[in-house]
Each structure stands twice: as C-alpha cells, then as structure tokens.
Specification:
It is found in: Cell membrane. The chain is 36% helix and 27% strand. The protein is an alpha/beta fold.
C-alpha cells in the first residue's frame, strides 16, 4: 500500500433511481495536501463528499481514509476526519471559549490542551475580544467564524471542507484560508469543495474537476490552465475613458478578440501573437495611455472551468 496516499477513492458510483449521480470517479489524496473538488451545481461534488464521510454508501467502488474502508470499517474511518457543518450542537448559553474547550475535550484533547487550542483559534478567527461572551450576543458572522474554528479544534488528520467560505465576507474568508494553511503545515490533509474558483486556485495543490458525475480533469491549477492553451495578456487602465482606444490597439495589433471588464482588458494569446505584444505596449505608450498593469500570465481558473464544463454531457 502507498502510505503517501491518505485518501483513496477508486471507481466509485452512485445512482438515485434512474439518475446516475456519480460515475466511475477515482482519485488519491496525499498526506499534507489540499485537494480541491470543483464543479458546477449538481455536478456530483456533494454526493462524492457524502460517500467519503460515510453519510452515503456507494453502489460500487471503494473509499479508504488513512487505510480504513468506509463501508467495512465505518467507525474507524469516521475517527480519521472532521467536517465543517457538523458543529450545529454549539451551546447558546456558553461562551465561545467554553464551547471550544468542550469540543476540544470531545476530540480527545486534555483540558489544558483544549484551553491552549481554544486561545489559538480565538486569535486566528479574530474572536479573542469576544471569547467570554455568550453566543446569544454574537452576530451571524461571528457565529460562522466560531463554527469554522470548532471544526478545526482537534487538528484532524483529514479535514473535509464543504464550501466553507460561502457567504463569508472577504476578511473572514482570508482568516479561514490562513487557518487551513496553518493546519496543513502542522500535518493535516484537506479536501475542499468550493464554488469560488479563486479559492481553489489560491489554496489547492491539486484540483479534480467534476461535471455530470464524471471526472473531467485532475491536476495542479497550472496543469489545468494549460488545457485552455496559451497565455493571457492583461492590460489594466487607470480610467475607463481609454477603454475603446486600448481595445482597438490590442485588437488591431494582435488580430484576436479582446475581453473587456471594467478597467481590465484581456486577450488569450498563442506563440505567434506573443511576438506582437511589445508592439501593443509601444502603441499604448505612444498614445500616452495611463496603464496600471501590463502583464502576460496564465489564464485564470475560471476560463478552464468554463471551457471544460460548458456544453459537455
């Protein structure tokens, strides 16, 4: 057995009535990896996650978590992971600190370790100043941060994050990202489902793209971006009044479609058009167009997502 792969998913299938929700999906997740599961709504991500966490039985195939089979060794498999969204049992009459300590002890920590871990997480999620208030005084955002903190309390070997930052404000989302990266640095392995492509791009070491229950692609974010082909020229202007002129210069010089969004213009370029890019810059400078950014980069994950899922059945 390959001990580097902490999670093994092999040829799993799930059918509900006539509808096949998951078809022959396989992937391994290495120890210490953040693995992203991406796909449109209804693609099968949640069904896969529910099978991996023993909430659903697969019709075919095999899943093992840290060497334990989810069907034949369900209790041992469940001891290997924590999952966000399973912490609804927080006590409204207790403080944030007391709730964290209780969940720490439930996760096998000594009282001293639970208290230490509670302080770490209260700091990580910007709750230190409210640590000793009862939850009745908490806003919705503060409760969500506490909920996320509780899911991280036991430093689980495997952490399943099912769209953990949906609806969070950007600041809380960044706190969540930092806390997850810290946990991984300390040895945890993470499977993340998300609807935010920049989140997967930022966090995940590898991504599996699921559509209509099938695996469409798997690889690092940069591997997947190569599927789109070529590179992208990004031009950012300081004032929208220059937009039409910049679009014309880029289009006429490169003979390629120019995508315009607010003050940003992008062009997907290949090896041939790449040689013409300096001419675009020369013409913009000659026209004295104020530019805040002019860069050649890999295309965003959004482009991969759209190209590989739209219109496929």
């Amino acid at each position: 057995m390959n001990h580097d792969s902490l999670i093994k998913v092999k040829n799993i299938r799930k059918q509900f009535g006539d509808k096949v929700a998951v078809q022959d999906v396989s992937f391994d997740i290495k120890k210490g990896e953040i693995f992203g599961l991406l796909g449109p709504n209804g693609a099968g991500k949640t069904t896969i996650l529910r099978m991996m966490t023993t909430l659903l039985r697969q019709d075919a195939g095999k899943i093992s978590l840290n060497g334990f089979d989810t069907l034949t060794q369900g209790r041992l498999a469940r001891q290997q992971f924590s999952i966000t969204g399973q912490t609804a049992a927080i006590d409204q009459d207790l403080t944030a600190r007391e709730n964290l300590i209780i969940f720490g002890k439930l996760n096998g920590l000594s009282r001293g370790d639970a208290k230490t871990r509670a302080v770490e997480l209260l700091t990580d999620f910007d709750l230190a100043n409210s640590a000793d208030q009862t939850l009745a005084t908490f806003s919705g955002g503060m409760r969500r941060r506490l909920d996320l903190a509780i899911s991280l309390i036991g430093k689980p070997a495997i952490l399943f994050l099912d769209e953990p930052t949906t609806g969070l404000d950007p600041r809380t989302r960044m706190q969540m990202w930092r806390a997850v990266q810290k946990l991984v640095a300390e040895g945890s392995t993470v499977l993340l489902t998300t609807q935010y492509l920049e989140e997967a791009d930022h966090l995940a070491n590898r991504i599996a793209l699921i559509d209509h229950g099938k695996m469409i692609a798997i690889g690092t974010p940069s591997d997947l971006k190569k599927h789109v082909g070529g590179m992208q020229l990004r031009i950012e202007i300081t004032d929208q009044k220059w937009r039409v002129q910049v679009q014309k210069i880029a289009h006429d010089t490169l003979a390629l479609p120019v995508n315009v969004s607010d003050r940003t213009l992008t062009v997907l370029i290949d090896d041939t058009s790449m040689q013409m890019v300096p001419q675009v810059l020369n013409q913009l400078q000659a026209a004295k167009v104020p530019i805040s950014n002019f860069a050649i980069e890999t295309p965003p994950l959004d482009d991969v997502f759209l190209k590989m899922t739209v219109g496929k059945n």
